[in-house]
Amino acid sequence: MPSPSSRILVTGGSGFLGRHVVARLRAAGIDVAAPRSAEYDLTVPGSAEALLADVRPQTVVHLAARVGGIGYNQAEPAPLYLANLLMGTHVIEAARTTPGIEQTILVGTVCSYPKFTPVPFREDSFWDGYPEETNAPYGLAKKAHLVHAQVNAAQYGQRSAYLIPTNLYGPGDKFHPTVSHVIPALVKKCVEAVERGEDKVEVWGSGRASREYLYVDDAAEAIALAATTTIEPGTIPQPVNLGTDHEVTIRETVETIAHLTGFTGELRWDPTKPDGQPRRRVDASRAEHVLGWRARTGFEEGLRATIDWYLANREDAERAPH
Asked: How confident is the model over 309-319, as pLDDT tens digits?
């Protein structure tokens, strides 16, 4: 662990994942800076340099991102690609050129993997094909950051780590329909159906696609470990999967959420809507080897905590994105 006097900057520290990472680091007695995007727009050239000059951290954790579910990815692919590409590019370069930055932790996305990756996804398959089409703009933008980190390590000796979490969920997730992912979207639908006495819930796709869900606090633990582990000089960053090794179909996901929220009506599937990537489950053995990390939260346990948080924080959870 770094000394308490060292400082870690977390971009996106007020976001869903960022809040959990910041809380975990601060609980360990670490000085954490987490300015909001309104103060520093990382898509603008020079903003990342200004941020690092003002904060003067030793480690940078880059979590700032523009994200959403399948519907958002289809509606806004161009700004989704550009904003994510620029934010990561600017942060990586600013961290390289700013004196005193010892290492940079980058967080990618499982959406970067090829559409038909052999299951479980292993990091060696990362470049074996094109991502699933609805996820490609976001996935490719984040994938470019790995290349950037690798070439900077090779040419300049910049120290970086690149983590790939599976589908995140948990307390603090986004439940507004324009940006929600599968679990918050389904929780909201089922809770509202129960409250309104409705006898059916519409669900996108066929239900056959699968996902691997990672509880947000487990992901935050892995990121905090990476941020507080010294990266050896000259190491070429390799992707590191973060997952649970537990694959769940969308149908099983919906049925579990319905059970936990008390919805007993019909689940009506709409096969005209996209399934997204056919299957997702990763091999997270590299994370255990390099970080000593394993996910600890069971799926149903995590869902209960997510639903409880949503019911207690409806206004905050459903707030429209800025």
From this structure: 999 999 999 98
Residues identified as active-site: 138
User: Do the beta carbons of residue 212 and residue 283 sit within 8 Å?
Assistant: no
Rounded Cα gap, residues 314 and 175, in angstroms: 9
For residues 11 and 33, give the distance between their C-alpha atoms in angstroms, rounded to a whole number: 8
Residue pair 266/201 in contact by the 8 Å Cβ criterion: yes
Phi, psi of 210 (to 5 degrees): -125, 160
Provide mean pLDDT across the span 68-88: 84
How far apart (Å, rounded) are the C-alpha atoms in residues 90 and 92?
A: 6
* AA letter at 156: Y
Q: State the average pLDDT over residues 39-48.
A: 96
List beta partners, residue 33.
9
Count Cα atoms within 13 angstroms, Cβ side, for 166.
29
Q: Could you tell me the sign of the dihedral formed by the alpha carbons of 207, 212, 213, 216, in that order?
A: negative
275 or 85: which leads in pLDDT = 85
**Nearest alpha carbon to residue 291 among 234, 225, 215:** 225
Q: Which residue has the tokens 């129960």?
A: 194
Indicate the pTM of the whole model: 0.93
**Is pLDDT at 71 greater than 80 in this prediction?**
no
Residue 9, judged by CB atoms within 10 A of its CB (0-12, 13-18, 19+), counts as: buried
- Helix, strand, coil: what percent of the chain each, to 5? 45, 15, 40
Question: Which long-range CB contacts under 8 A does 233-237 form with residues at least 24 apart?
Answer: 233/157, 233/159, 234/153, 234/157, 235/153, 235/159, 236/150, 236/153, 236/154, 237/106, 237/146, 237/149, 237/150, 237/153, 237/160, 237/161, 237/162
